[in-house]
Amino acid sequence: MCTMATVIKQFLIAALVCVLVSAARAPLPVHAQYRGEPRTIAHDFLDIEKDLGAARDQNSAVNALIVRAAAEIRPRESHTTEQAIAVLQAIDSILAGEGYTFGKNLLLGRGLETKTVDCDNYCALYIAIAEVIRIPIVPVYAPNHSFVRFYFDDGTYLNWETTRAVVRPDSYYVKTLKIPEESIRAGVYMKTLSRQEFIAVEHNNIGAYLMMGGKYAEAVPYFNTSVRLYPLFSSAYHNRGSSFYALKHPDGALADLLRANELDPSRAGTHNTIGDIYLDRNDLARALGEFNASIKLDPTNYVPYNSIAIIMKLQGHGEQSRIWKEKSQRIKARYGK
Q: Are 169 and 157 in contact (CB under 8 A)?
């Protein structure tokens, strides 16, 4: 038979259990009311894109993702590998649940509107969530690709491929993307990016978007900002050099493309455009070397084959010119580049 004291004690214990369960299920109050402050990397990206159509609706979409993540993910003082993967899987599930898929889309604002985001913008959304609910995730840049890195207390980390929602070792990126060892040693690729350097990636993306529309003069200021914020950003040098070449500023183009090649000698397109500049200057020996380097790195692009055919003709080697021209036509028919 229970005494009155026992009944009161049991009631208090039950009430305490209810409070603890409710607290565990409830989202953190500061995050539940999140409306864009503190600002995240995604908000910064959208602010940079405001002249290209990013609007308040896109900011609201980011806010909603953060609120949902705060309701589902509990930050910890430290994480095991399994707990880290669970957090990353939860973020992926949230994005997938909202309909986001991977695709080519250089602008975050457009990606939020169409629900199609590229690797850089996937990273921006992961990190926006992490910045607010305090998860140790940072961006990492590889050739034409970004992913995120989850850091543990002891300085070790795991790489998370946001476009596939899987863990990838460093060796996967080095092998798959054919990253030169000298570029890794120099800190060009596979290093964690600072916030400033990731902002540089956004400026480079906007510049590339403008280049695709033939707006080379408008693109150049974005590349200027990109290389200022991230001095080892080979892609930005390549893109600015290519823009200068399209704008008929060959000296500036060559300087940037040589710098891009110094930072990343594995980009076939850089060698090809350097070859074009040397060909324009009638420096045939250097041009030939660059076109051969381009073919070695990417044998599926017909353009340098055709350029070598032109050089052979200029040097009076008619038969060699014909052979290279035919190679160019076969490559174009096969690969369409």
A: no
For 128, what's the count of Cα atoms within 13 Å in the CB-facing half-sphere?
32
Report CA torsion sign: 271, 219, 225, 57: negative
Distance CA 225, CA 213 (A): 20
Tokens of 267: 């980009």
Q: What is the pLDDT of residue 32?
A: 58
Domains of the chain by start residue, with CATH: 28-185 (3.10.620), 214-335 (1.25.40.10)
User: Scanning the structure block, which residue is given the tokens 């990013």?
Assistant: 54
Place of tokens 């300087």: 255
143, two tokens: 């050739």
Q: Is the pTM of this model over 0.85?
A: yes
Name the token pair of 167.
């863990």
Predicted confidence at residue 92, as pLDDT, reads 98
Confirm if 78 and 135 have CB atoms less than 8 A apart. no
E strand spans, the chain: 101-102, 116-117, 137-142, 145-151, 157-161, 166-168
Cα gap 210→220, rounded to integer Å: 9
CA angle 37, 39, 44 (to 5 degrees): 150
Q: For residue range 181-200, what is the model confidence (pLDDT) as tens digits?
A: 999 999 999 999 999 999 99
